[in-house]
Design goal:
This protein has a three-stranded antiparallel β-sheet with strand order 1-3-2. A hairpin with a 4-residue loop joins β2 and β3. By secondary structure, the chain is mainly alpha-helical. The N and C termini lie far apart (142 Å). About 6% of the residues have low confidence.
Length: 302
């Protein structure tokens, strides 16, 4: 059977609710209507679940729990059992039908900390039997939030720096260069620094494109006078990386040499005239005794 929660329309007219921020109103209404609620006003729910279902950041959920418990006196959260008790639960969820009353009694039997049931009804309860550090240790909530921040930062660092994937891309894209077999501490540090120094580098697509650029740079693959080849450590050095991207290792081919210039037309005309005269001389007088040719030019007077 589906679970239904009825909230009275006067909920929004309640003086305390009117004083709440939008986040507080949303959180309070969630505590009254979420799928984990029970008919007795005490139910088990984790901070992680609250954050996930409301879309509210986990850090803010912790602050809201602290605020509703210490400032508004609306809830008690037992850390040891993970149970939350809603004060004046029946004010907004009153239903005296026999079926609901029977269900309420059944739900009360599965509550681990019975003192929370007294809190819901507004009766006297034994605080010593309720493990609620939120209400009695003001430093607990701050330490909880700080631990959450630290764990979140650590998770992001682990997720954000995929050293192994980057090295695999290098090995796949550049088989011409020396293969990386071991992820050393210095390599991890270098990758981490390159990754964090520029947001555009914080994805594997960028690294693949970078190594493809290297692959299309013959100089880095040994096409140079010394036959030198780059390696992974060279390519992840910040200074060298910038030079690769800027095309500093791209050597342009020397311009093709121009073919030798041909002789001018005057020279060629002279050659033709000389060939004609030689042919004419052979047919008439033959070769001159001195080995020269008669070009029809009169000799100077002696």
């Amino acid at each position: 059977m589906s679970k239904v929660r009825f909230v009275h329309c006067k909920f929004w007219e309640d003086n305390e609710v009117l004083e709440m921020t939008p986040d507080e109103k949303c959180f309070y209404l969630y505590l009254l209507t979420n799928s984990k609620t029970s008919s007795c006003g005490v139910y088990e729910i984790s901070v992680k679940t609250m954050a996930f279902e409301t879309g509210i950041d986990k850090e803010l959920v912790l602050k809201l729990i602290n605020r509703f418990q210490n400032q508004y006196k609306k809830i008690l959260y037992d850390l040891s059992t993970g149970e939350i008790a809603i004060r004046n639960w029946f004010k907004y969820n009153k239903n005296d039908s026999p079926h609901v009353v029977a269900k309420r009694k059944k739900d009360e039997t599965i509550v681990k900390n019975k003192e929370l049931l007294k809190y819901v009804k507004g009766d006297e309860y034994d605080m010593d039997k309720v493990s609620i550090p939120y209400g009695h240790d003001t430093g607990f909530i701050d330490s909880k939030i700080q631990r959450f921040k630290d764990s979140k930062i650590q998770e992001e660092e682990v997720r954000e720096i995929p050293e192994e994937e980057i090295i695999n891309i290098y090995n796949e894209q550049l088989p011409e260069l020396s293969r990386v077999e071991k992820i050393t501490k210095s390599r991890k540090t270098a990758i981490k620094e390159r990754w964090k120094s520029d947001k555009t580098r914080q994805n594997l697509t960028w690294w693949k494109e970078y190594f493809v650029l290297v692959k299309n740079t013959p100089f880095l693959l040994g096409d140079n006078p010394r036959g030198w080849r780059a390696n992974f450590d060279f390519l992840i050095c910040e200074e060298k990386m910038i030079r690769v991207i800027e095309g500093a290792y791209t050597i342009n081919s020397p311009p093709a040499r121009e073919p030798p210039q041909k002789h001018g037309q005057g020279f060629m005309l002279c050659q033709e005239m000389l060939a004609k005269e030689v042919s004419k001389s052979d047919k008439t007088t033959g070769d001159h005794a001195d080995g020269g040719f008669d070009l029809g030019i009169p000799a100077p007077d002696t």
